[in-house]
Specification:
Layout lengths: L1 H16 L10 H14 L5 H15 L9 H17 L2 H13 L2 H9 L9 H18 L7 H15 L8 H13 L8 H16 L2 H14 L9 H6 L10 H12 L26 H13 L1 H4 L4 H4 L37 H15 L16 H12 L5 H14 L1 H4 L8 H9 L3 H15 L25 H36 L1 H13 L2 H9 L3 H5 L12 H4 L7 H6 L7 H18 L3 H9 L2 H8 L5 H12 L7 H6 L1 H10 L21 H20 L14 H5 L7 H5 L1 H10 L5 H7 L1
Helix pairs in contact: 1-3, 2-3, 3-7, 4-7, 5-7, 7-10, 8-10, 9-10, 9-22, 10-23, 11-23, 17-18, 22-23, 23-24, 23-29, 24-35, 25-29, 29-32, 31-32, 32-34
């Protein structure tokens, strides 16, 4: 095993230096001295010796597991050793070796010529990337036993990774270069799973996760003097409860057939309260009313259909809470408090108020006042009340302020001067990604397509299994099953890393500047990201969510602390005891959120969802009883319901009710009716081209620093222009007389016409 090799290459040199002592028995000074010795040995020219030293460093990063008795001890020593390695400058040394391996043309050309690439072709890269991943992840994650110096080291490491200290660019750009090099088939031996995981964790560390994004959003609104957010979206989503999935047509037909045969369904799909999914009961309902409701639902079971057998075991629920005390025995501070009304506060945009007033003025007074939202003369009293309600819920986003500011800068570039742009990590990353952003996006989507469970193997597709296939193919059934589990797990991890990476980039770019977000979004749309995500969900999503492609006995650090049990074909087939694969659920939610980001407020992209017939695909995804996933599915269904026709809305009333209960409302949005907007024409090319022009103007204004631009100063003084010394080519001196004869003397000059023109 790899861990045994790392242990072996650490122990032999360590025994020579410290014969009868363990690493955990050394003091910090002795440990630092030995790490410095390893770093010196890492600079030798012999490739094999470098690899042995790198494996010894990897053993330290893995927590010297041979000297530990529990998993907690392994994690403790892993954290201690990684902060020690970071303090000694190990990451910089590893980065130099990684750059050497990336630029190793001999290894790349050898891999290109090989018919089949295996694990042996990327050993050095995998060891280096493993150490760097452990360092980034362990330093990134905060623990209770963090020392003050570790907190300082964490902030320093975060600043180093986000700043252009590595060859004038952030560390993430080097990893993006590896991704594009792999997808262009110039380096097919690169271990993409490890590269993508390290890239995702680097972005997560340097830019921050969703909670940091929420804090940045709050501070950004305060800086722009905008009202605070109406609610914390993270807390609202966490408090949501999953709903019952709507019954499909097949289930309804099967239910009717069972009723005709005289069979009674064992478990009909009943209506659920927000608490029913989690086995909780509403304390404000008495038991008698509850029993009557359940009896009534049994009668209606034939109408609503039977739950699919898979669905009976697929309620994704948190650990059961302790039983609540009766309300009479609870003190006031401990009584259950249930939120009243809908989970989200409604929002209204400024343009929605303008559109409402424009329609009202046309109807009642026969003319409009443009964007004036204050003058209500001539409008009836109910319109006044409506406008007052709309203004109470008016929401101004940071993006709207940024767009307005950009329009002002474009109109008055000389008056307003240059914009001061703060060098934040996300701004530095965008500037570095800007020249090759389309290549990065296409490469990530290629990998996502290759790792999707619905994609079929093609001869011209990229090989993402280079760092999972062994040199010798399995010869027994057990080996084949183990390899099959490894391959599926490998693909799932790639999907997880890419989906999380894209979502983080979209959210951070949107917060930094809306046109940065629109730029990467447009590249994703043009690279067919929307149909790719829909293709991903066009599968048995319940099977994907409940897949068991993991072997618990081989998970680290369990496999190095405890004795390895005997693996059999039966144990591999049964899998672990977990009911769900949280990795796949995480990927599905990320992909749904990406799809929401791409289509929100974009009419042409919403019509793409309709054209690609996404409604039945998304409706099948509602079978996963997880509140957050259902929320983003319902959002995607909401934006296209007005285009699906009255018959679809009539036959999917349960879905419509779920949308009403869980998705935020826009007060004057007729999503459930679709009156005159059904006939609204859509021109994908025109909308995207107009957006592209705005993006290009933004990029040119902010990032095009080439001299001689549109607003470069011009010298219009005749004397200074004629007095400038002009460098002429050497051949001009030899042909000067010929040039005078041809261009001046032989050309007749009409002096009268010239004077009249003056």
């Amino acid at each position: 095993m790899t861990q045994e090799c790392n242990l072996l290459f650490f122990h032999h040199p360590f025994r020579e230096k410290h014969a009868d002592r363990k690493w955990t028995e050394l003091d910090v000074a002795e440990q630092k001295a030995y790490v410095m010795r390893l770093l010196d040995a890492l600079e030798v020219t012999n490739r094999d010796r470098r690899l042995k030293v790198a494996r010894a460093i990897l053993y330290l990063a893995q927590g010297v597991f041979d000297e530990c008795d529990t998993e907690e001890d392994v994690l403790h020593w892993s954290r201690h050793n990684i902060f020690l390695l970071h303090g000694m400058g190990t990451f910089t040394a590893l980065l130099e070796l990684l750059s050497m391996e990336i630029d190793n043309n001999q290894a790349c050309s050898t891999a290109v010529r090989k018919p089949a690439i295996s694990l042996a072709d990327s050993t050095e890269l995998r060891v280096l990337l493993s150490i760097m991943y452990l360092m980034v992840e362990m330093v990134r994650s905060e623990a209770e036993d963090n020392k003050p110096e570790w907190r300082t080291a964490r902030e320093t490491f975060k600043a180093e990774l986000g700043s252009p200290l590595y060859n004038g660019e952030p560390f993430a750009l080097l990893l993006f270069t590896m991704v594009t090099k792999f997808c262009s088939m110039n380096a097919p031996h690169f271990p993409m799973k490890k590269v993508l995981l390290l890239l995702w964790k680097t972005i997560l560390f340097t830019l921050g996760g969703f909670e940091e994004l929420q804090e940045l959003k709050v501070r950004g609104r305060e800086r722009l003097n905008l009202p605070p957010l109406p609610e914390d979206s993270i807390k609202v989503v966490r408090s949501m409860r999953a709903a019952s999935p709507p019954a499909s047509a097949v289930e309804l037909i099967e239910q009717q057939q069972q009723q005709k045969r005289g069979r009674r369904s064992r478990r009909p799909l009943v209506k659920q309260d927000s608490l029913d999914t989690y086995g909780e009961r509403d304390p404000f309902k008495n038991d008698e009313a509850r029993d009557e409701e359940e009896d009534g639902d049994d009668v209606d079971g034939a109408i609503e259909g039977e739950v699919d057998p898979l669905d009976r075991d697929t309620i994704i629920q948190p650990p059961p809470p302790p039983p609540p005390l009766p309300l009479q025995l609870c003190p006031p501070s401990e009584r259950l408090s249930f939120p009243k009304g809908l989970p989200w506060a409604p929002k209204v945009r400024e343009k929605d108020i303008e559109h409402f007033l424009e329609t009202s003025r046309n109807k009642f007074i026969g003319f409009t006042l443009g964007s004036d939202t204050e003058t209500l003369v001539g409008l009836p009293r109910p319109i006044h009340e409506s406008v007052k309600t709309l203004k109470q819920h008016k929401y101004i986003s940071i993006a709207e302020v940024q767009i307005k500011r950009e329009e002002e800068l474009q109109q008055c570039p000389l008056t307003l001067g240059e914009e001061e742009v703060e060098d934040t990590p996300i701004e530095i990353l965008y500037q570095g990604m800007l020249p090759n952003l389309s290549q990065y996006v296409i490469a990530l989507l290629k990998l996502l397509l290759a790792a999707a469970p619905t994609s079929k193997a093609k001869t011209d597709s990229i090989n993402i299994l280079a760092d999972v296939l062994p040199e010798e193919m399995p010869i027994t059934v057990l080996q084949s099953m183990k390899l099959g589990v490894d391959v599926n797990r490998h693909k799932e991890i790639i999907v997880k890393a890419i989906s999380a990476l894209l979502l983080l980039l979209l959210k951070h770019f949107k917060l930094n500047h809306i046109y940065q977000f629109e730029y990467i979004s447009q590249h994703l749309v043009f690279a067919n990201c929307i149909p790719l995500i829909l293709k991903f969900f066009n599968q048995n999503i319940m099977s994907y969510i409940s897949a068991k492609n993991s072997i618990c006995a081989l998970d680290f650090p369990h496999c190095v602390v405890y004795e390895m049990p005997e693996l059999t074909a039966e144990s591999l087939e049964s899998g672990d005891s977990t009911q769900f694969c949280w990795r796949n659920l995480f990927s599905c939610i990320n992909l749904l959120r990406i799809l929401n980001k791409l289509t929100k407020w974009k009419h042409s992209r919403t019509m793409m969802l309709v054209v690609f017939k996404s409604a039945p695909i998304l409706k099948r995804a509602l079978k996963v009883k997880q509140a957050m996933m259902q929320l983003y599915v319902l959002k995607l269904l909401k934006i296209q319901t007005k285009y699906l026709g009255r018959q679809w809305r009539k036959s999917n009333m349960k879905t419509m009710s779920a949308i009403y209960q869980k998705v935020r409302h826009r007060l004057n949005d007729d999503w459930a009716y679709g009156n005159d907007i059904d006939a609204r024409p859509w021109d994908f090319q025109a909308e995207e081209c107009a957006l592209r022009e705005s993006i290009e103007r933004f990029n040119n204004r902010r990032y095009d620093k080439s001299p001689g631009g549109e607003f470069a100063p011009v010298d219009n003084c005749l004397q200074s222009v004629l007095g400038q010394r002009v460098e002429l080519p050497e051949d001009f001196h030899y042909s000067y007389e010929m040039w005078l004869e041809r261009e001046v003397f032989s050309q007749p000059i009409q002096w009268d016409e010239l004077l009249q023109a003056q």
